[in-house]
Design goal:
The complex is a heterodimer of chains A (about 400) and B (about 290). Chain A has about 400 residues and is of the alpha/beta class. Helices cover about 40% and strands about 20% of the residues of chain A. In chain A, helix 2 crosses helix 11, helix 3 packs parallel to helix 4 and helix 11 crosses helix 12. In chain A, about 55% of the residues are buried. Chain B has a single domain, classed as ABC transporter involved in vitamin B12 uptake, BtuC (Orthogonal Bundle), CATH 1.10.3470. Chain B is about 70% helix and about 5% strand. Chain B is built from eleven helices and two strands. Classes of the chains: A alpha/beta (about 400), B mainly alpha (about 290). The interface between A and B is large, with 34 and 39 residues.
């Protein structure tokens, strides 16, 4: 009898909780707020929070002529994807939340999106770039990070019409899964744009020397060198390319140039190196919630006393997209309509012009290209939202 | 021509490996301590150079004496007041102690210097001597000569000075050495100090050719380990040869088989040497006799 009482009480409590906030829309997120991904997890949360307060300050979300305040329920997955999955299950089954904002990290998104798919609730994520997220036939996951295999596509597209026209590409990559996928995609893109791939080889992660590879590349004299690896090997490739006087017309990396340490470590040798970025602070995109990317950066700085990076911007953008789709669907409860609105989403946001393909993967956003110019990262592509012109061909090493 | 270039690259790289290996090999050969913190100690030297370059723009090559002296003192203290407490214990306990020391140092560096990758790029970086088709980067050439000079100096020290002879005597027969008035505790501390000092120098030179963070400590220790096994323990010439062999082997296996296979091939050779000539290429019945 006592047990039944407790159960009834609990039912009341949850029902009450669900009903009491009729003028509010609840989102849920299980993020890594502690543990090894705590830094990124908290940055994504900063993005969500800034979005929430900005929307509420403007009177909330507008659905069918009515205004709704937004709120987000957070859980800490302690950087454990399995725990994240359990917490998302809790959000869905106990907290009755059907709108899930994604966590940070490919493994976490992989695990938690399996839960949202199981319960048929929606997840929009701005925190993972693995291709494998979109090969499972899921209908309820939408992601705004450009995936690994498309990392170098924009760089190659940007370069293809430059003069003197580049025709040959050398691709080197670290032999871990992510870098290998970036390299595979780069090779496919190069062939698509009519380049000839003259050198394609991997190297062990964390290597201390790449002189042999550099000498072999030099013998091929490619117009473009693409490095798909990590910060440490990116530094070695630049240093040894200069040592051995390898002079491609463009030197581009998937990871490295966007980090502030790149210029600190290489000083003048970092000049004119190209890098790929999910997002940069200077992209001139408009945004339906913040007004523009520029405004978002200003508001973020004012609130958190630091510059936003792509983690926090990704969080904010995912939430913006979710909001706009819900408003367009004109309902906060009919998930089929919201899913439809997401599938047909086509709007400019601070993260770029966002559209999704049938697997929920973002298309057409691309990877903005940055170049180190006078020791500063400048966004050089896409040209209509860039702040500077790309320096091409790269001047020869002195 | 490309073969000659790759041979040169291998020798230049090998000299650096040798320098990392010399201190490790000496400490192992004389005190029987497999110092798993060797790479972390080298990184302390690297950070000294990095911060002096960043704060006061001191040329990295000029920081070599500083790295050597500071790490010499650190090494002396570590051995005298930490390792000597357990030096008579089983080798296993020592292994755990140095492993613990490695974890401590890596986390110390991560906390105070951050896990960011660092590198030092002076204005003259990237300039090279060009002889026809052959390119020899000046910095790598300088690193090569410094490594060879350091090896030669150490060989002279061990052969000619009283302390050097005492070190060798201690490693050969500790009881006989004690009878002639040598204090093993002091000699062990001196050996560890020299090993750490040379590791510090290797760390300094590392900043010029690659990027480093506290997390690469293990990789450096591993290189030192291979060099010591290849060359034979406790002998400076052995470590020099071991380093050069490893360097050339790596660059040639990258060229012939593929970059990704170079580590596998290096370890394969190490295993082969252990089977065919367990005392190393230049090892003799001298240093590193297994002690009770």
């Amino acid at each position: 009898m006592k047990k039944l009482g407790i159960v009834l009480l609990a039912c009341f409590f949850f029902a009450f909780q669900g009903l009491s906030r009729a003028d509010e829309i609840m989102f849920g997120a299980a993020l890594s707020l502690t543990g090894k991904l705590a830094k990124e997890g908290n940055l994504v949360k900063n993005g969500y929070e800034l979005w929430k307060d900005t929307v509420n300050k403007k009177g909330g979300m507008k659905i069918g002529g009515k205004s709704f305040k937004v709120d987000i329920k957070y859980y800490d997955d302690e950087s454990d994807p399995n725990r994240g999955a359990k917490l998302v299950e809790k959000l869905v089954t106990e907290d009755k939340i059907k709108l899930i904002l994604g966590p940070y990290g490919s493994e976490s998104v992989f695990a938690t999106s399996a839960i949202t798919e199981k319960y048929g609730v929606l997840m929009v994520q701005g925190g993972a770039a693995a291709d494998k997220l979109y090969t499972r036939g899921f209908k309820n996951l939408f992601g705004i990070y450009t995936v690994a295999t498309e990392y170098m596509d924009d760089t190659l597209e940007m370069l293809k019409n430059k003069s003197p026209k580049p025709s040959t590409v050398a691709i080197v990559y670290s032999n871990d899964l992510f870098s290998a996928q970036v390299a595979q995609g780069a090779k496919a893109s190069a062939e698509k744009y009519g380049y000839k791939v003259v050198f394609y080889q991997d190297y062990p992660k964390g290597t201390q020397d790449l002189s042999t590879m550099i000498v072999q590349i030099k013998a091929k004299n490619p117009d473009i060198i693409l490095g798909c690896g990590h910060f440490q090997d990116t530094i070695i490739i630049v240093k040894q390319a200069k040592d051995y006087k390898v002079n491609p017309k463009a030197l581009a990396f998937s990871v490295g140039p966007t980090l502030p340490d790149f210029v600190n470590s290489l000083k003048g040798d970092a000049e004119n190196v190209l890098g790929s970025a999910q997002w940069t602070m200077t992209l001139k995109y408009r945004d339906p919630v913040f007004g523009s990317n520029h405004e978002f950066v200003k508001m973020y700085r004012a609130r958190y006393k630091e510059d936003p990076n792509y983690h926090s911007a990704g969080g904010a953008a995912a939430a913006v997209i979710f909001q706009k789709a819900i408003e367009k669907a004109g309902t906060k409860d009919d998930l089929n309509k919201i899913r439809g609105a997401l599938s047909h989403f086509n709007e400019e946001t601070l993260y770029g012009k966002i559209k999704f393909d049938s697997t929920g993967k973002v298309i057409g956003k691309g990877m903005p290209v940055i170049q180190i110019q006078q020791g500063v990262q400048k966004t050089v592509y896409p040209e209509d939202v860039a702040e500077a012109k790309v320096v091409y061909p790269k001047p020869q090493w002195k | 021509m490309i073969v000659l270039q790759i041979l040169i690259n291998g020798l230049l790289l090998g000299a650096f490996y040798a320098l990392i290996g010399i201190g490790f090999s000496l400490v192992w050969g004389v005190t029987n301590i497999i110092n798993l913190a060797h790479g972390a100690i080298a990184l302390l030297g690297a950070y000294l150079t990095f911060f002096m370059f960043q704060q006061w723009h001191v040329d990295p090559f000029l920081t070599i004496p500083v790295s050597f002296t500071v790490m010499f003192i650190v090494g002396y203290m570590l051995q005298r007041y930490l390792m000597n407490l357990v030096v008579k214990a089983q080798i296993f306990i020592l292994l755990i102690l140095t492993f613990g020391l490695e974890i401590f140092l890596v986390n110390f560096m991560t906390t105070f210097f951050s896990a960011d990758f660092r590198s030092v790029t002076p204005d003259y970086a990237g300039h090279s001597l060009i002889l026809g088709d052959i390119v020899i980067p000046y910095i790598r050439m300088a690193v090569f000569f410094i490594c060879v000079a350091a090896a030669a100096l150490m060989a002279l020290f061990l052969d000619k000075t009283w302390q050097g002879k005492a070190i060798r005597a201690t490693s050969l027969d500790i009881e006989a050495a004690m009878m002639t008035g040598i204090s093993p505790a002091k000699i062990y501390a001196l050996t560890f100090a020299i090993g750490s000092g040379v590791a510090g120098v290797a760390g300094t030179l590392l900043t010029l050719t690659q990027a480093f963070s506290p997390n690469i400590a293990g990789g450096l220790t591993l290189r030192a380990f291979i060099v010591s096994i290849l060359g034979g323990l406790g002998r400076v010439e052995g470590a020099l040869l071991g380093g050069l062999v490893l360097g050339v082997l790596e660059t040639f296996s990258s060229y012939i088989v593929g970059e990704s296979y170079k580590n596998a091939i290096a370890f394969g050779l190490m295993v082969l040497v252990l089977i065919v000539k367990p005392s190393g290429l230049m090892g003799r019945k001298y240093y590193a006799e297994v002690k009770h």
